[in-house]
Specification:
By secondary structure, this protein is mainly β. 14% of the residues lie in helices and 42% in strands.
């Protein structure tokens, strides 16, 4: 009897929470028109990192509109996370965080970018408490990629902001 009463009260609480939360009911649905991908863990975060930048043409350095980015990360071996965004203004942002007690030093993120008229981009970036780093495959995709284009990391005490522009090559 006590178990039934507990379940009944819990269902009333859950229903009330969902009704009062309004737009938060749909929080698990992915919104593809946003410019931010959030990989921040649910646990407490000691060091926060944000990677921001633009999608630009490798020859003209002008922003590219209408770009689709797919980011794949493996937080643990059972549940890989895949998130995507469709940028209409040519900008993006990826957020994550790290805990000091966690032994994992960095996160490997597989990036796929699709834009009309450009070669598909597939590469890996690494986010760590020290900043963002790119894989050497970047030069295979774009032979004109210069070392001046690598991510710029601005570190403060508890937050790192990195800026990196994806230089896409025309077909």
């Amino acid at each position: 009897m006590e178990r039934r009463l507990f379940v009944k009260r819990l269902s009333v609480l859950t229903t009330g929470t969902l009704v009062l939360s309004g737009s938060n009911i749909y929080a698990l649905e992915a919104n593809t028109t946003k410019n931010t991908i959030d990989f921040t863990p649910f646990s407490l975060v000691d060091n926060k990192i944000t990677l921001k930048g633009n999608f630009i043409d490798s020859k003209t350095f002008e922003p590219i509109s209408s770009v689709k980015l797919i980011a794949k990360i493996k937080k643990n071996r059972f549940f890989p996370l895949n998130q995507s965004l469709e940028s209409t203004d040519g900008s993006y942002s990826i957020a994550s965080g790290f805990n000091v007690s966690n032994t994992k030093v960095n996160e490997k993120i597989s990036i796929q970018i699709e834009a009309a008229g450009y070669k598909p981009y597939k590469n890996t970036i690494y986010l760590s408490a020290g900043g963002c780093y790119i894989h050497s495959e970047e030069w295979n995709y774009n032979p004109n990629f210069k070392s001046a284009f690598i991510p710029k990391n601005n570190r403060s005490e508890k937050e790192t902001i990195s800026s990196f522009n994806f230089h896409l090559v025309k077909i």
